[in-house]
């Protein structure tokens, strides 16, 4: 029969083994990234669907895969009209046997959000990531009458730490009040 001290010692050893079985040992003061994920994230495909669009012209929409580096996301869109109301619709899908919606799902009116950030954590998270990825595009209204050129990368820090491994699809749609 085990005594209480022996059981606690066994549990402590078991926890230490589980903690270090996923990767390297971190020392104090070292930057710790992605501790909860023993895998990496990468973008492998970008599709701009349903082209040609009614109100914009897509000049470039592709991903450049690079060896030993993050994929480069390249998007260039010409927006001839000026918009004072712009919506961002987003939905994250996880692939079980087919793609199913997973947790991150919503719509944000970008112009009203730019005037004063809200207390909705999902909106703050999504627009914070977009602000870092697309600094030339995400700004207060009005939008349009120019060409938006973005070359960016998707960093692992942008993803929630609790994401399980697997295949994901992120649908993002920019819309005006007319479409």
Automatic annotation (TrEMBL):
Signal peptide (residue range): 1-23
Name of the protein described by the UniProt record: MD-2-related lipid-recognition domain-containing protein
Pfam hit, one: DUF1091
UniProtKB keywords: Signal
Organism name: Anopheles minimus
InterPro entries reported for this sequence: DUF1091
